[in-house]
Amino acid sequence: MLSYRHSFHAGNHADVVKHIVQSLIIESLKQKDKAFVYHDTHSGAGRYDLSDERAAKTGEYKEGIGLIWDRDDIPEDIAPYIQTIKSLNQGNKLRYYPGSPRVGRSLLREQDRAIFTELHPSDFPLLLQEFRGDRQVKMHKEDGYARLKASLPPKERRGVVLIDPPYELKHEYQDVVDAIDESVKRWATGTYAIWYPVVYRKNIDLITKGLEKQGIRKILQIELGVAPDSEERGMTASGMIVINPPWKLEQQMKDILPWLQSVIAPDTGHHFVNWVVPE
């Protein structure tokens, strides 16, 4: 089933949280000169035109990146993420929003590399177009988990895997747990960043409890909500579950999330940073 198109949702509050965490992890990896790999299992199109009819139809970006990208009180830690967005846009008009591949690629150094996987027949050509000729990027039109399994452990021994499935089907929550189980056996020291939407809270519990049972240490959960949990409202919150997070990430997000909530959902939102499993 490949009906999900991220172009309807690009730049929404969930993207903002996901890409802030992604950028903080990559910036942390850059503190050492040694090369690392950025692996994106569900890449999407690479960039999104917010004037496109799909983005315009929902207008979700207006309640996400549209609220923060040109503010003058942006926390210093998210400056690299904001700069990625501004580099795609000229002047004060917000037209393009970067998907996770573009955010990641924009932050890499010359010695680093990226692996992008996308199975959707409409999005993969757009991904190819976005990064064609880029020698630091390898793109694959195949199942993201199969490519991840084939790529681990990476030659660099350092890096981050972003897992961001569409969650169209119920089994995809368990698929994430199974993918982590296999991946950690191959590459225990890597950082794994799992994005999740809160539609039914029980599905998020399935992920966290499944990871706990695997005996993995150092699992951090980060969440921003725009409304209370409700099975009738669609996605009310989203977050990231990070395995082997950089040591500064917990405090960085504790500093960033109150500001982010105050801008995006001051009256109805919530946020938290919790250890699912401590070190």
Summarize this entry quickly:
With 279 residues, the chain is an alpha/beta fold. It is 38% helix and 19% strand. It has a single domain (6-277), classed as 3-Layer(aba) Sandwich (Rossmann fold).
Topology:
Layout: H1 13-29, E1 37-40, E2 47-49, H2 53-58, H3 65-68, H4 79-88, E3 96-98, H5 100-107, E4 113-117, H6 123-131, E5 137-140, H7 144-151, E6 159-163, H8 171-186, E7 191-198, H9 201-213, E8 219-225, E9 237-243, H10 249-264, E10 270-277
Parallel strand pairs: 1-4, 1-6, 4-5, 6-7
Antiparallel strand pairs: 2-3, 7-9, 8-9, 8-10
Subunit structure: Monomer.
InterPro entries: DNA_methylase_N6_adenine_CS, RlmJ, SAM-dependent_MTases_sf
Protein name: Ribosomal RNA large subunit methyltransferase J
Question: Mind explaining what this structure looks like?
Answer:
- This protein has one domain: Rossmann fold.
- 38% of the residues lie in helices and 19% in strands.
- The chain has 10 helices and 10 strands.
- The chain has helices at residues 13-29, 53-58, 65-68, 79-88, 100-107, 123-131, 144-151, 171-186, 201-213, 249-264; strands at residues 37-40, 47-49, 96-98, 113-117, 137-140, 159-163, 191-198, 219-225, 237-243, 270-277.
- The protein is globular, with a radius of gyration of 17 Å.
- It starts with 12 loop residues before the first helix and ends with a strand.
- The relative contact order is 0.17.
- The mean pLDDT is 93.
